[in-house]
Batch of 2 targets.
Target 1
Amino acid sequence: MVQTPEEAEFSAFVEQRAHALLRTAYALTGDRHAAEDLVQNALAKAFVRWRRIDEPEPYLRRMIYNEFASGWRSRRRQSEVTVAEPPDRAGAGHTDSDTALRLLLRDALLTLPPRQRAVLILRYFEDLSVEETAAFLSCSQGTVASQASRGLAKLRDLMPQLDWCPELVEGRQ
Amino acid sequence: MRFEQLLSETIDEMTGELPTAAAGLASRSIAEGRRIRRTRRLTAAAGAVLAVLAIALPWAVLPRGEHPEPGVRRTTAGPGLPGGWVVTGAGTHVLDRAAGEYVDLRGNRTVLPAPVGDRVLIEAGQEPPQVLDVRGGHRVTIDSSGFAGNYRWSPRGDQLVVRIVGKHSGFAVIDAGSGAVARYPVDGLDCGRCDYTWSRDGSAIIVTVADRSGPGLVARLQGFDAATGRPTATLPVPATPTGPYSWSPGGRYVIADSGAPDRRWLLIDVTSGQATPFPYDAVWVTADELLAVHDGKVLALTPDGTVTATADPGVADLGPLTLGPPG
């Protein structure tokens, strides 16, 4: 099927940048299929007004974050943690390795409400400041600070294994 | 290392494992974008007609505010589906079987109608999940501490299962009438994606067991007694079923997600583990007929994947469709 110039430009952008967008969506959803749904949904909406978008990637990133934070639902309604080569599952009392902690942290991250998760991903994955995160999500800096604080506190609460890692318990409430 | 640094490294590591984008993402997005454009043009045209006529027309949507509850209603859609199956939900619209209408539960980030009956699970904002009747009655709030939020209805619509993460990981069975939660820890099982779901008769909870030879692979399925949480049988099914109706009526076959982008859905003979590609995710109506949703239409298929009929339920513009049996 012959593509229009608009479709060809759009397709080229998707080919180049889809993986980066999917990484962001995967960080938010923790689910490969849900991430694809989220990105495809954003791409479809972006295509509708493609000719009027000057900088597609920031536009799409903002759309992905805001859609997720506002309570987006995957059409599959699934959550998933895909692990390529994880270590053996750690039992109680054997969670003092960083790798085991990371696996537990992935699980804990999935339990956070979407807005808290989005704030933490922006702050600690995208390395945005509180001010930048607030501008990104179109909310106040106070909201970002409180959401980040609550999210971190909940993660710490969900990980009693941190008791074996005193260097990580700084700020534990 | 500070906790924030551990968090940063965890997310970075997690996203680094993501495989390349699925083929066809651009073409699917363009197709969906075109559909949105068409819908907007039709909506604009319909709006102009309504402004002039100001009368109730079949299929017209008349918004009554930002978050109505219950909200916008539509008459239930056209042709019936094989075996008396119905479209139980379309986006945030849930079928009220008694009234023959769809009730819009917008404003909730999760709207999950039961496959039969009139119960709906909703999640709104950061509130705990609730189960209620489609008309808003008999509302119960669920104690969701530790839940991963991946809820699946039992085939009779009277219970839900959800994964538990954290200190006592495993699964929970929720009574949809009372909201009572039974928690069952699962030790020593590497479930990977950990998609807990139900057997077709509702007696068993099913979960994947990970195959660590590759990302996202499933080695087999593990069953648990839904009433006691005790492990039961293992099944040679290297893929993930979506729900109880993914299983054929006799339980011999299952449609399941292989995770592979090129041959994602498989029809698997549970007795032998033999798998053949299937074109869609599908539910079994009878031993000879399945239904699938594709591009807003409901397809009837034979077990060899042949599409025998296509029905347009007329509600595809409201959101992704979910199907349920009569009842």
Target 2
Amino acid sequence: MLLHKLQFDSHGQLRHLLTTEGLTSEHIFNILDRAERFFSQSTGEIIQTSELQGKTLANLFFEASTRTRSTFELAAKKLSANVLNLNISHSSTSKGESLRDTVRNLQAMQCQLFVVRHSSSGAAHFVAEHINPSSTVINAGDGCHAHPTQALLDMFTIRKHRGDFKKLSVAIIGDILHSRVARSQIHALKALNVGEIRVIGPKTLLPKELKSMGVEVHYNLEEGLKGIDIIMMLRLQTERMQHGLIPAGNAYYRQYGLTSESLRLANPDALIIHPGPINRGVEIQSDIADSPNAVILDQVTNGIAVRMAVMSLLIENVKRASS
Amino acid sequence: MKTLIRNGRVIDPANQLDTFTDILIENTKIAHIGPQAENHKADRIIDAKDKWVIPGLVDSNCRPHLQHPHGSTLIEEAKAAIKCGFTSLCIPPDGDLIIDTPTNVARFKQQTDDELPQLFPIGALTKQLAGESMTDMSALAKSGCIALSQAMHPVKDLAILRHCYDYAASFNLLIIIQPQEHTLARGGIIHEGTMSTHLGLQGIPVAAETIAIAQHLQLIKETGIKAHFTCLSSSDAVQQIRLAKAAGLKISADCAMHSLHLTEMDIAEFNANCHVYPPLRSQMDRDGLIAGIIDGTIDAICSDHRPLDSIAKLAPFADTVPGLSSIDTYFALGLDLVEKQGIPLSNLIKAMTMNPAKIFNLPTGNLSIGTSANLCIIDPNNQYQVTEATLYSSGKNSPFIGRELKGQIMMTLLDGSIVHEA
């Protein structure tokens, strides 16, 4: 396991959130508990607080995104922070110098929270390395590396619906090779001592040393799904077919698609989650995505509370460190 | 002018010499070695007590020219190399000026002078390194190219490569091969392994190297060409070379000093100074390379020096320019292998001096009587911490910054003249 020292302060508290790798179960439960407190006990809706009043969040998106960016924006507004949305085309900032300059400029505009999405793995680390001590970075997805808030909202959703992680068998299905979500999920699940993690996909879509992450690897969906409690689907990017990693047509769906037939092998009440957007009929049978065990829309709502929790925790930690 | 170097431990594998003795230099040549050297009246006496005297370092693959626009010039870097103990540098053809015509060889040579290490150009195998039509290889050789290479550029197809090798064989020319099957390396950033899995960076499989080696070996066998493989990175590659040598092929090989020290794990949290090509591979690969040095499969250790300016590394990992600045740490890292990895000192000195000189047929790399007095004097016990300020190279892109190293170049002599004194 890599330590990712950059995201911790000298007391081992989160200074930035760059990856779930290196987080302890205390770190994760702290965030999940905090997120729970943002739900109103009477209505179940997310509450409005003034925790981050006077703070400014910069949504720094070098890669197109609607949902993730919107939930970060909503989360910040629920905490009464100001939000600056920057959609920067990659071409204008492909040079690192300008990425660093962009961040410096935003610091000069007194932004304290930087939410970074970038197509290069390590981009959030890069920003965190060049940022001043009063600011904090949240990785909203860097290349194929990490997407920690997505993994944390998944953990929140699993805990909410299924409780104790230690008893659960989890399967992650699909394109792990290119998935920052899968990597972050695996690290989080490992930290939470989940009973079992299986990863299922064709060999072309699995990283070579996947076992070094402490998971069981399956190339066969039926085998991998047997007795599973949680099914974590990944979005299949169709461009992978053009790159010759899988056959064109519906071969992938036939071998790895979650259908009522393959679902029968999992535990009867298996929970189905998906980071969205869903490709109906590509990785998942359309009516399964809408079934009661599929909590895909609940994940979206939980994502707001979890992102609020991350923001409030990081600002609190930065404040404590500077006082 | 007579210079006497006294009391040093003289290590010269070419003459099976490792003893405390004196060296007498007359003008530019080594005139005498042995205790009776004291009897000669010297104009200048250098006391080398507690020091080592070895042939000047010969780098089989050094890129002192910067590809990045804000870097230093070839001359500045060559001057830095002198201070790091190098007296001969073999320069691949893929610098700013592609060495593919005799005119360009002449232009390249204009950049050299007496105070610099000897710069030996390697000519391009194909015009503009485009991999399509062969250069006038014999003219390049006549104008001073010590070998021919495609550097890191692919050749369009194997038929062209085969013709190039056949043609070069007609003139008994040496070919330098940096093995990579570029369709397998395409888009790759780091070794395909544990770190590419963890960091989500596209991997370069070992097969990108081994498939290329297999193809080249077949063509070498068929055309009878002399070939040298440079910058090997994997254990499997070492084994391929070992078997090919045993089968009698006229080949030699080197690897970069950093590949004997670093592995993919050193990339840690996206350390861009560990972004190099060929990539740092696994611990097993590193062990395989070290075994190759010990049993002589790998003949030479190159610096694969690529100085870059700070902007080149100022980006998310995959967007940085690959390469590391290595001449400054080269010798001390070599000594570290002797202390920690059990590489015999004589193997190390051979791999840094005599062997690369032999491979390229250069009149240096040894302390034989009558040869040019290219040598360096080393304090093997001087321990220091590497910092940006200790690097003579203007490329500060060294992953070894912060490390404690032992062994310092105290003096470099080129053609009998002191060109560096610490």
